[in-house]
Amino acid sequence: xxxxxxRRRLARIExxxxxxxxxxxxxxxxxxQRPGVRAITVQRVLKAAGELGYLMDGALxxxxxxxxxxxxxxxxxxxxxxxxxxxxxxSSQDQLASFNMRARVDRVESFRPELLAQALRRxxxxxxxxxxxxxxxxxxxxxxxxxxxxxxxxxxxxxDIMNTRRVAYVGLDNRSAGRTAAYLIARFIGARPAKVAMIxxxxxxxxxxxxEMGFLHFFEEMFPQIEVVGLREGHDDEAKNYRQTxxxxxxxxxxxxxYNIGGGADGIGRALKEAGRQRDVVFxxxxxxxxxxxxxxxxxxxxxxxxxPQTSLMDCVAIFANLRAGRAPLEGTTRSRTEIILQENLP
Length: 347
What we know:
Structural class: alpha/beta
Largest sheet: 6 strands, mixed
């Protein structure tokens, strides 16, 4: 005779608490839909309950079905790539809905850390997760950590921030990006003495600071005959970048290359065209957008270093989905890939 199958022991609330790493009281609050539990903890408890069979299909509380609300804080201004990213987020609501998420985009005046800190605290009251282009400043670090205390995770996007409890960074290895820009300019110029310059948005962005360091170190190590004559800040503004480029061309008539670390590339291109230098000054910048695409086509720009905005958005979504499910933030994600776009390989 065959032995009758053993009955599986029914899961208890203590089992759910043990698997999710919280107290039985917290599990009770989640399952009975009482307030006072962080969104991440709610999802972890529900995941554990589902794995143990504690909740039957169709019996999940409302929290399991409630969409996660994401807030994206992006700098305002004339940076075309960031404008493109903002529009992409706004037009991707149907795609986000398939992940049971929805997103809002808030603009913050560029290069103002106190305004970014205020926006983080304000938006953090209404969302379950925040993504922002961070500024290195104590006020911003405090705001990120204050959100972490309330169970609202922060993902840094494009530019990172150190010594905080942000959960992940989505963006390029910016030191490598700066070295890549230097390599491209050096190869275009050739092995001869020359002068090149940099125009940054602001070094308050760690991304811009790291790109500058990579750029400088590459020439010091590999092409010492090429002199970097200075760094100017244009705050990603086309008009300011136009004036900065005019000044550089006047001060250094033989200038051979310009590296635009941030946005506002159109202003640089306009100054080069007015001076008739668009064919002999090597121009490398960041962010494939309508203006940089046009300048690649007409030969004003030689190369654009970029990252795919759609991929960046979906990396953020994957990170928040992992957190909601109680997984490690970067599980299943890949490091952002640097893309080099030339006239001949425009997508």
